[in-house]
Amino acid sequence: MKKTLVIHTGGTISMKENPDGSVVETDSHPLSSEDLLKSHSIEEENVFHLPSPHVTPAHMLTLANYMKEKVSSGKYAGIVVTHGTDTLEETAYFVDLCVNTAIPIVFTGAMRSSNELGSDGLYNLICAIRVASHRKSIQRGVLVVMNDEIHTAQYVTKTSTSNVATFQSPQFGPVGMVTKQDVYYYQKTYHEEIFDISALSKNVLLLKAYAGMPKELIEMMDPAKTDGLIIEALGQGNVPPSIVPAIQHLLQHNVTVLLVSRCYKGIVQPTYQYEGGGRTLLDEGVIFANHLNGPKARLKLMLLLENDASHQEMINAFKD
Ligand code: ASP
């Protein structure tokens, strides 16, 4: 029987709480010795041991390459990754874009450290292993399992700072659930395109739009050192007129400017033709990105730029 590979990368799931309430990193993974885990056929590896705010796209690429090697060995029925919850959705989406496999890949984490009352780490890990070793999870792309719910890497986001039900997919909801007996899916999932890259060299920045936003925030960017800018725009994809000339300047210097919405539901669309309105921005060459939040759109744009995608290819890549 093939095993499930569990890859640890750090985060609260591998941390302990001090008597004063502060949370510290542990040297080894504190969950590995648990009896509950012994009843599952797993193999464990530590790829890095970091709080997730320390994780960079370079770490994500290291992890994706490591996972590609493990997948091609043909030894595993599925892979679980434990990760800090702060940037879990970004790493999960990056892996979704870079690792091409039918076997289930499931990310999980914890909101409470391993020795805290009501700790959710071991429970989430067991659920993630059950999902990753389930035949119904094959060919679904990268999944995130927390708090009895199954989400896709593309749509899931951390919604609460401390609640164990923090991971939600605001637009479409979870794709499945885990019960004591079984794993259930009630939405079809589709897998995104795959990027084959060996390095990450592009500088893509992210800003959130707000009323009265000063142009200096964008003017500070050196177009010679900037490959792309994601703006979490207002509503359907509009920005304050104050920043329009700075956006035009970036576009004239071949910096890709991409809009997502700062609303967490709905899609962006070029509707308004006033200054700073989406329709006007589209005519200037700004690209609209649907169904992704700012940090995930940034990762996808980094990969597209790395592959020298044309303007039209980028429009297509962010349309659906
Ligand atoms: N700050 C922690 C981290 O992301 C939170 C967690 O793991 O839940 O590493």
UniProtKB/TrEMBL annotation:
InterPro entries: AsnASE_II, Asp/glu_Ase-like_sf, Asparaginase/glutaminase-like, Asparaginase/glutaminase_AS1, Asparaginase/glutaminase_AS2, Asparaginase_C, L-asparaginase_C, L-asparaginase_N. It catalyses: L-asparagine + H2O = L-aspartate + NH4(+). Residues 203-318 form the Asparaginase/glutaminase C-terminal domain. The keyword Iron does not apply. It holds the Pfam family Asparaginase_C. The keyword Hydrolase applies. Signal peptide: none annotated. This is asparaginase. It comes from Gracilibacillus salinarum.
